[in-house]
Every structure is written in structure tokens, then in C-alpha cells.
Design a protein that fits this description.
The protein is of the alpha/beta class. 41% of the residues lie in helices and 11% in strands.
Length: 531
């Protein structure tokens, strides 16, 4: 087994100047937008400027070719631009500022000059509506001018560095979204990738190795980007193909931008609902990385439209993605977990999935959640669960866990589950970002990865090994026969008198009291005594 350096990609990356500059641009929106809506403009403007900087070197050639032949094939235009996108407009953000009186009209024309895949992204972000709103609010010129002066070139910011910028911005603009939504900190993702490749992955070093990675709750694509850089770092010849599905428009747009700049196949990063469709159904994955949203319902009135019907229809299929059963409708995490298992290559597939405490503890023995846990254990799919510190995420401070799922357990692990307590292995951030107060340093990740790989020495303060059957149990109803004695004896009568069981029939003290007072028994009472 080859040793993986878990300290990979940990040279300090300082993007504070750029992130602070972009953040400062948001002040120009004051009065036109409420502060909680600044991100609706700043994120798409950052994406537009990122595209513009990437295309700068080939822009003139692309525009010239388009003017020569407006019907020039898109694929040929891709080759000319150097990316899977292009822009045929004469405008740039800087050029837009040279005609302030017509900036809104020209900006819309500039956007229409992008290739169709980029227009899809910007349409999802409702960019033309924001252009109109900024123009009417008097802040369009200043916003465009500020972004035109920002260097977001690929030479200055590769996908990892650009990911840090988006991470910083989303952490600031979207602190109040649902837990787990939009972005997972790179320190958390790096730990997950380190755990995935620490065992059973010698083949990733083969020349020109095809490595498929999937995230069905992809957000902005941060997990995929981190994994991509990880594998390319160790094997520059590897053909790393990324597959993502994301429902939220803003996060899909950010992710798609980086996928295109990486040269990934844009058709593999899909804006869709993972519960309604599996866009890569025919492709088995070497790796799955995922941080599904916590506590999001898949059924009932609070579920997204059509999800419940789609899940039930899928469950009815012979080879359903939810083969182990359906969890309670209030939390979809265990549906994502089952879907991840279904995506894995049957021989070498490995997955790392972030969950909160609900999948560990929710539901009695007969519940859907319990049956799914039982299915994981009976099929020996669960390799390890790593408890992480609280306050790791930008928008929630709750406890979370890495679940490592494997279809290629090494022999020593077969029939066992490893539990690692990493709740106290972290470093404090110098300054909190939203709810994120803690992070994994390179040394922290190295310590946790060592606990994981030292399986044979795992019985320690922080790591325990248990047999699968230790987690499996059944509830039994113990029925005991009802035992009663109905024999009437002097002893039984005496016991009943002492315990008051006959008080409702005869109270000797009460009778004596009535007789002393000269109260005669009524005929009804006389009949009772005779009975």
C-alpha cells in the first residue's frame, strides 16, 4: 500500500486582498439592495469577471472569427478560445464603462455574446434583472467599473485559489442558509479526500488512470475541485472526470464556472434534483464525495415539488437506488447515502459522506432508518465513522461525521467498523467566519488519517473497533401468561379484607357505626348482605 502525504496542497494561500476588495464592492449596492441580497449580485459579477479574465488572451481571435462567420461551429470556437465557452461580443467590462449612458443596454448585449452554456448560468442567476435594478438604482456603473479592475485570471488564481475566494464570499453572503448548503470548508473536504485515498487506492498512480468522482449534492463543486487537484497532484497523467448534480441555482452556477475553466465536460455537472433523476446513471464511480443538506424533507408538505412521488417511484423499481428502504420523510440524508452506494464501482468503489447525528440515532428497530443501517452492516459497507468537532461550518455549529463507505475493504477490516473520536482534534480560527470557529490544520488531518490507517492498533483513546454484529439488535415482545388464583378460602378472604378488596361490598366498621346511631339498614342494603 503506497503512502499518501495528507499534507498535500497546504502551502498558505492568501486571497484576503481579493476577497476583501470584492466584499467592499457590495457597499456600492447599498440603498438598491438590502445587505442580505448583496450576494445575488456579487457572486454572478465575480463569475462574469472570472470568465472574462480566462478568455482575455483569445478574445480578439474569437471575435474576429465570429465577425468573419457568425455561424462558425461552437466546438471549433471552443478550440479557438481554449475553453469550453467563449464570448463574441466586442465589449468587456472595461469597455462598458466608456459609455456610461448606455451601460445597461450594452451590458445585456455583452452577456448575450457568451456561448449558450454561460448564458444558461447567468440566466439561472437572473443577471439581466439585476442589471436593470442596478441601473435604476444608480449603482450599475460603479459596480461594473470596480469589477473591471479586478484580476481573476487563471494565471493568478487557479481553481483551488478561486475556490478559496468563492468560499470566502459565500461564507460572508450566505451565512443564514440551511445547514450544509452551498459550501463545505476546504479543510473538511481535504480530510475526507485523505480518508478516501488512504487505503485501497494504489491504482490511482497508474499512468493515464481514469478516475471518476461524483457528488450528488455538489453545491459550488468545492469537493470535486479539491479531489481533482488532489489526484492531479499525485498523478499528473490521470484522466480525472468529475460528475456533479446540484439543485440550487446560485451554487450550481459557481460550480459550473469552475468546471468549465478546468476543461471538464459541462454535461457532467447538472442543474437538477438528485431525487428526481440520476444524470450519470450509466457510469459507476471510483469515488463519491458528498455533504448532503441536513434535515431536509423528501416527503410531505415541506418537500420540494415532485420529490415524494419521484422517490416512491424509484423505490418501486427492481434495482432501486433506495434498495434498503425509505427513511422517515423529515430527513433525506439516508437517501443520499444509499444513492452514493448505488453509484460506486462494485469492486473498488469508495465514498466519504458528511452526515449529522440523525442517521446515527434516529428511529426504532422497525423504522426505515434502522433498516438502512442494518443493510449497511449486513453488506459490510460501512468502514469507519469519524466524529468531527462542532463549529466547523460557516452556517451551522452542530456536530457532524464523516462516514467512510467501501466496496474494497482490506481483509483486516472485513466484518468490522472503526469509530474515531476527532471532536478535540482541531485548531481555532483567529477570527470566526460566520459559525465557523474551528478548522483542521494539516497536522490535525495527519493525526486523524493516522488513526484511520492504524487499524491494527486502533484500540486507543480516540479510535475503537467493533464487529458489525455489535451494532445489530432486534426488539422482542416478551409475553408472560397472566397468573390468577380464584380459590375461595378463609385465608384468601382475610387477605382481601386486609387489602381492602372487599371494601366496596362490606364495611363492618361502617355497619357498626350506623347501628350505634340507630340507623336501620334499608331494604336494598339488606338484600346486598343476603347476597
Amino acid at each position: 500500500m503506497k503512502k499518501i502525504d495528507v499534507l498535500w496542497d497546504d502551502n498558505p494561500v492568501d486571497i484576503s486582498a481579493e476577497a476583501n476588495f470584492i466584499w467592499s464592492i457590495a457597499n456600492k449596492l447599498r440603498g438598491t439592495y438590502m445587505p442580505d441580497k448583496y450576494g445575488d449580485v456579487i457572486i454572478p459579477m465575480t463569475i462574469i469577471r472570472r470568465f472574462e479574465c480566462a478568455l482575455a488572451k483569445t478574445k480578439a481571435a474569437v471575435v474576429a472569427k465570429y465577425n468573419e462567420n457568425p455561424n462558425y461551429p461552437a466546438k471549433a470556437m471552443y478550440r479557438l478560445s481554449g475553453y469550453q465557452f467563449y464570448n463574441v461580443s466586442e465589449f468587456t467590462l472595461q469597455e462598458l464603462c466608456n459609455d456610461a449612458d448606455h451601460i445597461a443596454e450594452n451590458f445585456k448585449a455583452y452577456i448575450q455574446g457568451f456561448s449558450d452554456n454561460i448564458k444558461d448560468i447567468l440566466n439561472n442567476l437572473d443577471m439581466e434583472t439585476h442589471i436593470k435594478k442596478m441601473d435604476e438604482g444608480g449603482c450599475l456603473f460603479n459596480t461594473v467599473k470596480a469589477f473591471s479592475e479586478l484580476d481573476l485570471s487563471v494565471e493568478s488564481f487557479d481553481s483551488i485559489k478561486m475556490g478559496y475566494i468563492f468560499e470566502n464570499l459565500i461564507g460572508r453572503f450566505f451565512q443564514n442558509v440551511d445547514a450544509g448548503q452551498f459550501y463545505t470548508g476546504r479543510d473538511i473536504v481535504k480530510l475526507g479526500v485523505s480518508l478516501l485515498v488512504s487505503e485501497g487506492c494504489d491504482d490511482i498512480f497508474d499512468d493515464h488512470k481514469l478516475i471518476t468522482i461524483c457528488d450528488q449534492a455538489a453545491g459550488t463543486g468545492g469537493m470535486l475541485s479539491t479531489a481533482y487537484s488532489y489526484f492531479k497532484h499525485y498523478n499528473p497523467t490521470a484522466d480525472v472526470k468529475l460528475f456533479g448534480v446540484e439543485f440550487m441555482g446560485v451554487s450550481w452556477a459557481v460550480g459550473m464556472a469552475e468546471m468549465l475553466i478546468k476543461g471538464q465536460d459541462a454535461t457532467n455537472f447538472v442543474h437538477a434534483d438528485s431525487f428526481k433523476e440520476d444524470p450519470s446513471a450509466d457510469t459507476k464511480m471510483r469515488f463519491v464525495l458528498m455533504n448532503p443538506p441536513f434535515g431536509t424533507p423528501w416527503s410531505g408538505k415541506d418537500a420540494k415539488a415532485g420529490q415524494e412521488e419521484a422517490v416512491i417511484n424509484e423505490y418501486a423499481k427492481e434495482n432501486s437506488r433506495w434498495g434498503a428502504g425509505l427513511p422517515g420523510g423529515g430527513d433525506s440524508q439516508m437517501l443520499f447515502l444509499q444513492s452514493a452506494v448505488a453509484k460506486l464501482d462494485e469492486k473498488v468503489g469508495r465514498a466519504a459522506i458528511i452526515e449529522n447525528g440523525s442517521p446515527l440515532f434516529t428511529g426504532g428497530t422497525a423504522s426505515g432508518e434502522s433498516q438502512i443501517r442494518r443493510w449497511l452492516l449486513e453488506n459490510d459497507l460501512l468502514e469507519a465513522i469519524i466524529a468531527m468537532p462542532t463549529d466547523l461550518f460557516y452556517n451551522t455549529g452542530i456536530a457532524s461525521y464523516w462516514w467512510v463507505i467501501s466496496k474494497n475493504k482490506r481483509p483486516e477490516r472485513k466484518g468490522y467498523v472503526q469509530l474515531i473520536d476527532a471532536t478535540n482534534i482541531y485548531h481555532k480560527l483567529r477570527k470566526p467566519v460566520g459559525n465557523k470557529k474551528n478548522e483542521f490544520s494539516p497536522e490535525d488531518r495527519a493525526q486523524i488519517a493516522k488513526l484511520y490507517t492504524d487499524f491494527d492498533k486502533a484500540d486507543s483513546e480516540y479510535s475503537k473497533i467493533f464487529k458489525n454484529e455489535n451494532f445489530m439488535y432486534r426488539e422482542y415482545a416478551v409475553m408472560q401468561p397472566l397468573q390468577r388464583s380464584y380459590s375461595i378460602t378463609e385465608a384468601s378472604i382475610e387477605r382481601m379484607l386486609q387489602k381492602g378488596a372487599l371494601k366496596g361490598l362490606w364495611d363492618e366498621a361502617k355497619v357498626a357505626e350506623y347501628e350505634e346511631q340507630g340507623n336501620a339498614l334499608s331494604g336494598k342494603d339488606e338484600n346486598k348482605l343476603k347476597a
